[in-house]
Amino acid sequence: MTADKIAGQFSAVREECPLVHCITNYVTVNDVANAVLAIGASPIMADDINEAADIASIASALVINMGTLNQRTVDSMLAAAKAANKKGIPVVFDPVGVGASAFRNDTAKKIMDNVRISILRGNLSEMSFMAGLEVSTKGVDTSAKDEKNDPVSVAKAAAEKFGCAAAITGAVDTITDGKRVVRISNGHPMLSRVTGTGCMTTGIVGGFAGSCEDMFLAACAGICAMGIAGELAYEKSGLLGTGSFHIAIIDALSKLDSTLVSERIKVNDE
Asked: How far is CA 78 from the centre of its chain?
């Protein structure tokens, strides 16, 4: 049943073409915009404080990402998120690299203290930190030490702590709203060799959040989309190298539909 519901979201997002306001990092902003567009949503990458709140107010979803953090974008993220909250617009937060520096830790806390987050997405180290566990961060990647943490327990703890859907991406992805739990096994190891696939995933999740009222289901669809796209991209171009694989991810995202997703999704309810 979950697989059918997830697959159905791929038709919905293309039919509705939700406007997704992304305040993401400058390393991956172009990739995020193309990924959001490829999945059927409409991206707008507005991060100046003078318009962040206005743009968020007219969007279908807001995505905020701490990848290349600076005070200017922190202020814009907070202004946009508060505006989105006032309008009941979903907010997707990617706490990239949290645990690596005091600035990132303080920013994540400030966001969570002042904003109602709809979906929280990160790797196991980031989500462990957000759940209140001690972590051994490795920049923006999951550390080997943190891999001992149980992703289901960590995701549930984060979801219950913040009252949102929580998604941990990895070799097997874990998504929960504190009650429902899904594990998704799609993807390919080569996804970790291309910068920005995590940021693209968060943007895609924002696309589904803009067209789906169930944030748990939106998170599942977004995570599934990148996993299947990674598989298709490797089949097409993986042997050519990471550059061709990178482009093939966008190609694959643009071809995803409910039928293809139904055929390839690897999902387990727990």
From this structure: 18
Contacts of 102 (CB under 8 A, 6+ apart): none
Residue 241 region by backbone torsions, left for phi larger than 0, else alpha for psi between -120 and 50, else beta: left
Report the distance separating Cα 78 and Cα 129, nearest Å.
20
State the pLDDT at residue 143: 47
Measured CA to CA, the distance from residue 55 to residue 53 in angstroms comes to 6
DSSP 3-state helix, strand, coil percentages of the chain (rounded to 5)?
55, 15, 30
Mean of all residue pLDDT scores within the chain = 94
Give the domain ranges of the chain: 2-269
In angstroms, the CA 116 to CA 200 distance is: 22
- Helix residue ranges, H only, 174-257: 197-209, 215-237, 242-255
H or E stretch covering 94: strand 91-94
Q: What is the pLDDT of residue 147?
A: 58
**For the domain bounded by 2-269, which CATH number is listed?**
3.40.1190.20
- d(C-alpha 26, C-alpha 76), whole Å: 14
Residue 59: enclosing H or E segment and its boundaries?
A: none
Owner of token pair 């600076």:
70
Q: What parts of the chain have a pLDDT lower than 50?
A: 139-143, 146
